[in-house]
Amino acid sequence: MEKRIRVLVAKPGLDGHDRGAKVVARALRDAGFEVIYTGLRQTPEQIVEASLQEDVNVVALSLLSGAHNHLFPRIVELCKQKGMSDVLIVGGGVIPDADIPGLKAAGVAEVFTPGTPTSSIVEFIKANVK
Fold first, then answer.
1. Could you tell me the sign of the dihedral formed by the alpha carbons of 75, 77, 82, 86, in that order?
2. Residues lower than pLDDT 50 in the chain
3. Cα separation, 28 vs 24, whole angstroms
4. CA dist 24 to 14, 64, 70, 121, Å?
5. pTM of the predicted model, to two decimals?
6. What DSSP line would sit under 2-59, residue for residue?
7. pLDDT tens digit string along 29-59?
8. What region does 72 belong to: left with phi over 0, alpha with psi -120 to 50, or beta?
9. How many CB atoms lie within 10 A of CB 54?
10. CB 10 within 8 A of CB 62
């Protein structure tokens, strides 16, 4: 039996809007992934600790507050420090196109902006999980 992909969906920082994260979480679950949702207002440390404890393959970050340039790279760095370099980290939310190359350079595998079909997120994860 094939092991299911485990995804932690997280809302870092002070962003209080989680509708998009819940839509993505449901789409991932419906695609057969095992999904853990951390809830709102998580610190990078809380997200990485939960990822480690849950032994996830993917950390999916959702952010609308504009703090992505600080929080996403911090989570990538903490994952590396914890020896989780095989974990796929993706981000999404209201993120300006100009910020995406810097996030990718910092280790975020892909950034999904508003309007991205959830099927595209599912396919990217399936194609890129180690």
1. positive
2. none
3. 6
4. 19, 14, 22, 8
5. 0.96
6. PPPPEEEEE-BTT----HHHHHHHHHHHHTT-EEEE--SSB-HHHHHHHHHHHT-SEE
7. 999 999 999 999 999 999 999 999 999 999 9
8. alpha
9. 15
10. yes
